[in-house]
Design goal:
The complex is a heterodimer of chains A (about 325) and B (about 170). Chain A is α/β, with parallel strands linked by helices and about 325 residues long. Chain A is built from twelve helices and nine strands. In chain A, the strands form two sheets. Chain A has a five-stranded parallel beta sheet with strand order 7-6-5-8-9. Chain A has a four-stranded parallel beta sheet with strand order 2-1-3-4, sandwiched between helices. In chain A, α5 crosses α12. Chain B is globular, with a radius of gyration of 15 Å. Chain B has a five-stranded parallel beta sheet with strand order 2-1-3-4-5, with helices on both faces. In chain B, α2 links the parallel β1 and β2. Helices cover about 25% and strands about 30% of the residues of chain B. Chain B is of the alpha/beta class. Chain B has four helices and seven strands. In chain B, about 35% of the residues are buried. Classes of the chains: A alpha/beta (about 325), B alpha/beta (about 170).
Chain lengths: ~325, ~170
């Protein structure tokens, strides 16, 4: 790949496709800009005129309610016009190719495409073919990346812990299938978190995950020790039917986050989850609703982070 | 360059003017970055009871479509209810008037002030919009292509500086 496909000739963010390969300055720019947008979302008039006259197309080739809604809210708070396309129910079922779909939308004067696709790399393919004034934001592609979720996790950690240096962050669960985990881990290492741990059964950790700069734990009791941040991943129910896991009950026993296990982490540890949660599978209700949980603030910050990403790419 | 006035010497007469204008509903807002520094000083010298508000107008600029977000915006913090206030809007240098236009647009997303008064340290002319300052420390002739900026030294002292616009 020649250069970084996310950056323009001036090294500015043209598309957001992955946190992998993004320089620290751009990650920090996004987080700082998001902080200013948090101020906007706390006002009575939660809207700024920045993207007035621009069109944001939400292209969801894979269903999602929460992510699509937060992108929609973010775009509307920037005064953009938002068009939601549920592609599963549109031309794709009639055989139109991905690039034909995008070319048609481009002819309708799109400025930003927010893309979710079950195939890893689909947003990269689109980014390579759009016009210079069009921007692509990856809203989750296959098992590959979910950069805005990773960024909102980074924002949440910075909000509560102030500084990334000196932190121990534990990511627990199904790392193998998690685009959220991958996007977060790349961001954490770029921003200088000295210790990132992944905790899970062998079958749910990708082979060679250490290459990402993380420490691997199969024993959750060891992995949680002295952690500042605990990120729980969703256990997708469909994984249960395969040979990867014995049963939800057994998984909860070994890798579900309970108050007892959380007591091993630092007293001021925060607990995060990208949602939607499976209560009683990867996280106990008492923890999800407990004093360490910052799961709902994550959702609120997610809107400001998506406003920041859209306003930065659309201006470059 | 020698023609530039000492910023510190412009403050006391400006404060004396403003004091005559203060009402029980007066509150102050400074525009980042230079206007915020100036506002901190004026706010303290006037002893205004309402805490100082600080605004970054990045999300309201009229050149976003050309320029994008060129710096990381600071967070606007207005720690009082804008409704019904007599606002002193403070910036360091008044030039085209576009920053003030953006600031007024942002302010009205916070509420409906009773009045807005513009206070600047220096007016360099070159207006592109029908905006003028009610209180101005100095009127200066600055050639086009030069940028007049307020700087703050480590000891907190303010001074005006001319530099070539990049």
């Amino acid at each position: 790949m020649p250069g970084n496909p996310q950056l323009n000739a001036n090294g500015e963010l043209q598309h957001l496709l992955s946190t992998e390969g993004l320089p620290r300055e751009i990650l920090t720019q996004i987080l700082d800009t998001a902080e200013s947008f948090v101020g906007v979302t706390e006002r009575e008039v939660k809207k700024v005129p920045l993207l007035r006259g621009k069109s944001v197309f939400n292209l969801f080739f894979e269903s999602s309610t929460r992510t699509r809604t937060t992108f929609e809210i973010a775009a509307k708070r920037l005064s953009a016009d938002v068009i939601n396309l549920n592609i599963a129910a549109s031309s794709q079922t009639k055989g139109e190719s991905l690039l034909d779909t995008v070319a048609n939308l481009s002819a309708m004067q799109a400025d930003v495409f927010v893309v979710r696709h079950a195939s890893s790399g689909a947003p990269f393919l689109i980014a390579r073919h759009v016009k210079p004034h069009e921007h692509v934001i990856n809203a989750g592609d296959g098992r590959h990346a979910h950069p805005t979720q990773g960024l909102l996790d980074l924002y949440t950690i910075r909000h509560y812990k102030k500084d990334f240096r000196g932190l121990t962050v534990a990511v627990v669960g199904d790392v193998l299938h998690s685009r959220v985990a991958r996007s977060l881990i790349h961001g954490l290492t770029t921003l200088g978190v000295p210790e990132v741990r992944v905790i899970g059964p062998q079958t749910l950790l990708p082979a060679g995950v250490e290459a990402l700069g993380v420490r691997v734990y199969h024993d959750m009791l060891k992995g949680l020790r002295e952690a500042d941040v605990v990120v729980m991943l969703r256990l997708q129910n469909e994984r249960m039917s395969g040979a990867l896991l014995p049963s939800a009950q057994e998984y909860f026993m070994k890798y579900g986050l309970t108050a007892d296990k959380l007591a091993l982490a630092k007293p001021d540890a925060i607990v995060m989850h990208p949602g939607p949660m499976n209560r009683g599978v990867e996280i106990d209700s008492s923890v999800a609703d407990g004093p360490h949980s910052v799961i709902l603030p994550q959702v609120t910050f997610g809107i400001a982070v998506r406003m920041a990403v859209m306003s930065i790419v659309a201006g470059n | 360059m020698n023609a530039l006035p000492e910023a510190e010497e412009l403050l006391p007469p400006l404060v004396a003017e403003l004091r005559a204008r203060v009402t029980p509903a007066t509150a102050m807002i400074g525009l980042y970055t230079g206007g915020a520094w100036l506002a901190e000083r004026l706010h303290a010298m006037l002893g205004l009871p309402e805490p100082l508000g600080l605004m970054d107008i990045a999300f309201y600029r009229d050149d976003y479509h050309k320029q994008g977000l060129k710096h990381d915006p600071k967070r606007t913090r207005i720690p009082f209810d804008v409704d019904g206030k007599d606002l002193l809007l403070v910036d360091d240098v008044l030039y085209t008037g576009r920053t003030v236009r953006a600031a007024m647009n942002e302010l009205f997303d916070y509420g409906r002030p009773r009045s807005i008064t513009l206070v600047v340290l220096a007016d360099r002319g070159g207006r592109q919009l029908p905006i003028c300052a009610q209180h101005c420390g100095a009127r200066l002739e600055v050639p086009e292509g030069m940028r007049l900026r307020l700087k703050r030294a480590d000891d907190g002292k303010l001074r005006l500086e001319l530099e070539h616009a990049g």
